Amino acid sequence: MSIFNVPTKNEVSENNQEIFTQLEKGLGFVPNIYASLAHSETALENFLAFGNSKTSFSAKEKEVINLAVSQVNECIYCLSAHTAIGKMNGFSDAQILELRAGNASFDAKLDALAKLARNTAINRGAATAEVVANFYAQGYTKGGLADAILVIGEITVTNYFHKTTAVAVDFPIAQPLEIATV
Questions:
Q1: Which of 26, 56, 57, 20 is nearest to 38 (CA)?
Q2: In 3D, which of 128, 106, 175 has the Cα closest to residue 117?
Q3: What letter does residue 182 receive in the DSSP assignment?
Q4: pTM of the predicted model, to two decimals?
Q5: What CATH number belongs to 59-180?
Q6: How far apart are CA 35 and CA 157, in angstroms?
Q7: Which residue in 64, 41, 45 sits closest to 144, CA to CA?
Q8: Residues 76-119 pLDDT 10s
Q9: With 8 labelled, which of 137, 140, 165, 175 sits at a CA distance of 20 to 30 A?
Q10: Residue ranges per domain, the chain?
Q11: What gap in Å lies between CA 120 and CA 17, rounded to an integer?
């Protein structure tokens, strides 16, 4: 049960109302997690600036990180949202399940990225030397490692925000990984 109400456009600041309008134009709706960030005068704008900042990763690579980290953090909101976004970025249902588990048998480079994301999240930022070496061996650079840590941080923010607030999930609910893989 949510401990945070999802504010409507009329219940947020004028600046956040403008952001809601932009989100409605771009996404067709304002996701509950974003709307809930608008309780703050600045959190929604700051988060979107962080999330929309430049990165060396493609949208598909970002989804690899988002899915692996959200699974480690057991965030049903983000798992549900990024399952839908992952499909929009061309991943199949089976591939999404693999990515959630921190693997990508279908692509060695994405596999290294998924393993890095999962290992970093599990170890609270201290990825093992073996996982980092594999990441580099697949063609990623030190700059890519820096970008990966930022994407991990970004998804961790929404994972933690949802786990604390329990705002209603407004995407098709992702199945628990252990049920989905049976």
A1: 20
A2: 128
A3: -
A4: 0.95
A5: 1.20.1290.10
A6: 15
A7: 64
A8: 999 999 999 999 999 999 999 999 999 999 999 999 999 999 99
A9: 175
A10: 9-51, 59-180
A11: 36
